[in-house]
Amino acid sequence: EAVINRIAAGEIIHRPSSALKELLENSLDAKATSIKVSVEDGGMKLLQIQDNGCGIWKADLPILAERFTTSKITSFQDLERLTTYGFRGEALASVSYVSQLSVVTKTKSDTCAWKAAYIDGKLASKDGSPTEPKACAGNDGTIITVENLFYNTPTRLSALRGSSEEYSRILDVVTKYAVHNPHVSFTCKKSGSASPDITTPSGSSVKQAIGQLYGQTIAKELLETRISSAGDGVIRVDEEEPWSAEVFFTSPNYQAKKMVFLLFITHRLVESSRIKKALETIYTGILPKGAFPFVYLSLQIDSRSVDVNVHPTKREVHFLDEEQITQKIGDAVHAILIGQNQ
Ligand code: ADP
Ligand code: MG
């Protein structure tokens, strides 16, 4: 059974950066305003994330890493939304099947923190023997520690690149979430290093965060627009769900060798080749050959519109009204770019 779970877990957690993505989303879901990531050997030896979010109740610790444990379903209506990205409550369980997972957590109302360790979904120390949560010192919030990722799945381990390649993927994920969450302060560093590779302050704006993380050359040339289904005051009948989008995109003055595209759908970092292609095509008519833009797009759609058949970690998503929404966003961006060009 453990072997089957391990294989399933490897389908969800592909590499250190995909584990980190899940952990970051959990910290953000827990309303953290400070997130600190620490990494050793590209995340293969150690991946640690400390947040100042709501913490986890001690009573929830025994089942925390069991599959389908989620605190995010509180009503029957939420159950419908379960389909958001086709899965819920699988991330920590998956991580525990392919690593040595431990948690230190404290809620505001707890007088001390609690530490728990997991193997294969259950409370257990590294040698696999059963354990119980232990009281310890700690700040409000949660520290998740993932050690020796894929130690028990050699095929996954051998599919990884070197630690510097894995680390740069980690930095990429942290960077993108930092842009999308400018109200949260992020740091990311190699453990033991005094100077972080990423530090962002809390309370900045998306534009400031782009400037800080991707460079002022980009920030200087950023245009922005907001688009929504109700933009003209009417939700059209052919669009079944209301939606809205916020786009930051570079003017034709900025020309990169490769398109940088950040896409968040309902606050999850995802990929959509359709949207990317549509935007790329718009710029093809405007920029010289071989020049590409920077685009950040945050799309908010009702969770029920996201295709449940696509697994979340495949990242490529499809959603209801994809064609019309893509068209409208493209039209809005195009109109502004053309105006700029004159
Ligand atoms: P999901 O996020 O889909 O609920 P996960 O396996 O990612 O499932 O997490 C399981 C549960 O663990 C969450 O629902 C949440 O209650 C709790 N949890 C995980 N990480 C944190 C965190 N950093 N802070 C507070 N609670 C957390
Ligand atoms: Mg989660």
SSE map:
Layout (H helix, E strand, L loop, with lengths): L1 H11 L3 H14 L4 E7 L5 E6 L24 H6 L9 H7 L2 E7 L6 E7 L2 E2 L10 E3 L4 E7 L6 H6 L3 H18 L4 E6 L7 E2 L6 H9 L1 H5 L1 E7 L14 E8 L9 E6 L2 E2 L3 H12 L9 E8 L20 H20 L1
Parallel strand pairs: 1-8, 12-14
Antiparallel strand pairs: 1-2, 2-7, 3-4, 3-7, 4-5, 4-6, 8-9, 10-11, 11-14, 12-13
Helix pairs in contact: 1-4, 2-6, 6-7, 9-10
The site of adenosine-5'-diphosphate has 21 residues, from helix 2 and helix 4.
Q: Number of folding domains?
A: 2
User: Hetero groups bound?
Assistant: adenosine-5'-diphosphate, magnesium ion
Which value, in Å, is the CA radius of gyration? 21 Å
Through-space gap between termini: 64 Å
CATH homologous superfamily identity of the largest domain: Histidine kinase-like ATPase, C-terminal domain
Percent helix: 25-40%
Keywords: DNA damage, DNA repair, Nucleus
Protein name: DNA mismatch repair protein S5 domain-containing protein
Domain DNA mismatch repair protein S5: 210-338
Subcellular location: Nucleus
Write structural notes for this entry:
- This protein has helices at 2-12, 16-29, 76-81, 91-97, 154-159, 163-180, 206-214, 216-220, 273-284, 322-341; strands spanning 34-40, 46-51, 100-106, 113-119, 122-123, 134-136, 141-147, 185-190, 198-199, 222-228, 243-250, 260-265, 268-269, 294-301.
- The chain has 342 residues and is α+β, with helices and mostly antiparallel strands.
- It folds into two domains: 2-199, Histidine kinase-like ATPase, C-terminal domain (Heat Shock Protein 90); 206-341, Ribosomal Protein S5, domain 2, CATH 3.30.230.10.
- The strands form two sheets. Strands 1, 2, 3, 4, 5, 6, 7, 8 and 9 form a nine-stranded mixed β-sheet that branches.
- The termini are far apart.
- Mean pLDDT is 89; it is low at 80-87.
- The structure holds adenosine-5'-diphosphate and magnesium ion.
- Magnesium ion (MG) binds next to helix 2.
- Adenosine-5'-diphosphate (ADP) binds next to helix 2 and helix 4.
